[in-house]
Amino acid sequence: MSLPDPVLIQVPERLETERLVIAMPHIGLGQALNAAICESLAELRPWMIWAQTAPSVEDSEAVVRHQVARFIERSDLVYQFYLKGPQGQAGRLLGGTGLHRLDWAVRRFEIGYWVRSSAQGQGYVSEAVRALADMAFTQLRARRVEIRADALNTRSRAVAERCGFELEGVLRRDALNTAGEPRDTCVYARIAAL
């Protein structure tokens, strides 16, 4: 059985939870994304290679446009999540999430996430991760969804555990941290019921 061209796969562009709107990126988002990243550099810097220096608004807009292109190609499904307004509209940008390292043949995806500093500790990331995982299993027919986290990133690991992902193992010295030193990666996963 041949795999359909991934660009033909229907992927939701917007999800809603009780408190959040989770939406694919859109052109013109660069300024809001830039503000969230610049606010959060100190917390993001130890874990995110892309958060080592403050980007310009133009840099952030270029990132958004590349995210849009990859979303359309179905090569990387980045979403931003927003506080949900009273009429269901997207309010303040809170952070980013997405399905990465897509393997459409296996139907395996990896969830990544970050949240702006002023929105930490309020459960927004867990809410977004649960919604994204549910969408992956139901609408995208995922067989496996992973979360990978630096072994020292206890907050990220706690999100995976709160969202029902099981620690399958630790890959020792499998990647480099932001300082270029070897690090261990914890691999969490949920698998589809047979």
From TrEMBL:
InterPro entries in alphabetical order: Acyl_CoA_acyltransferase, GNAT_dom, Ribosomal_N-acetyltransferase
Domain N-acetyltransferase residue range list: 48-187
PROSITE patterns in the cross-refs: GNAT
Keywords tagged on the record: Transferase
GO CC, any one term: cytoplasm
MF term (GO), any: protein N-terminal-serine acetyltransferase activity
Domain of life: Bacteria
Record has Amino-acid biosynthesis as a keyword: no
Descriptive protein name: RimJ/RimL family protein N-acetyltransferase
Species whose genome carries this gene: Roseateles asaccharophilus
